[in-house]
Design a protein that fits this description.
Length: about 200
């Protein structure tokens, strides 16, 4: 069977605004802020970064994100608080698979801003784009067992646990499992502000 043509992102316009957030492409000037948030291992370990994260790593991340977006290969956006313009996180849609019409979603929020619903709001905007504009059929991601917060974000968006990749990531001398989550387009439950969080 001939390989299908690569799945490319359609022409997308940014920034993308949600009730409280602005999602936009990272700029070189964002690297220092990203590197600062990534000093926190509570942010980097759950996304599979085990070593120290430097300013140069962040600069390289920004360069790559911009190149990949230009080529239509994937999306890495930064999350900005619309209220004060601060960069508080990131959200990405990568590993576009033309056969399965699926992609991987990833996200992080700086610890100071956890528990305001920002991850769900940002991920929801990117999933909306993935299903309505890119016309994907599925989204997927993996969560470590020590990350119940992320599992909660995913479940609220409609993701379903689909299995466990046993001892699939190495942390130092240890192997850890990764729990697979998947979301079909018609299962997606977009973010809607909670009553108690409306002011946030
Ligand atoms: C996971 C992460 C993105 C969540 O960000 P956030 O903005 O705090 O997420 P939200 O506020 O949208 O939702 C957090 C959910 O976790 C729940 N939660 C918080 N602490 C929890 C805990 N200890 N156990 C279980 N659920 C918990 C909250 O109740 C909330 O669920 P709800 O909306 O149903 O009430 C953030 O903690 C983070 O960046 N962690 C490091 C990077 C990471 O894990 N990325 C994802 C990799 S798969």
């Amino acid at each position: 069977m001939p390989a299908p043509p690569p799945l490319r992102l359609p022409k997308l316009r940014f920034p993308l605004d949600t009730p409280r957030l602005r999602l936009r492409l990272p700029r070189p000037g964002d690297a220092a802020t990203i590197a600062r948030w990534f000093r926190d291992r509570g942010v980097t370990r759950p996304i599979g970064i085990w070593s120290d994260y430097t300013l140069e790593d962040a600069e390289e991340f920004v360069r790559r994100a911009r190149t990949r977006f230009r080529r239509g290969e994937g999306l890495q956006l930064v999350v900005i608080l619309r209220g004060d313009g601060r960069l508080i996180g990131g959200v990405g849609l990568t590993e576009l698979n033309p056969l399965k019409l699926e992609a991987h979603i990833g996200y992080w929020i700086g610890r100071e801003h956890w528990a305001h619903g920002y991850a769900r709001e940002a991920a929801s905007a990117v999933l909306d784009l993935a299903f309505r504009r890119v016309r994907l059929h599925r989204a997927h991601t993996g969560v470590f067992p020590f990350n119940p917060r992320s599992a909660a974000v995913l479940r609220r968006l409609g993701f379903v646990e689909e299995g466990r990749e046993r001892r699939s990531y190495r942390i130092g001398a240890r192997w850890v499992d990764s729990i697979r989550f998947g979301l079909l387009a018609d299962e997606f439950r977009p973010y809607a502000p909670d009553r108690a969080r409306r002011k946030g």
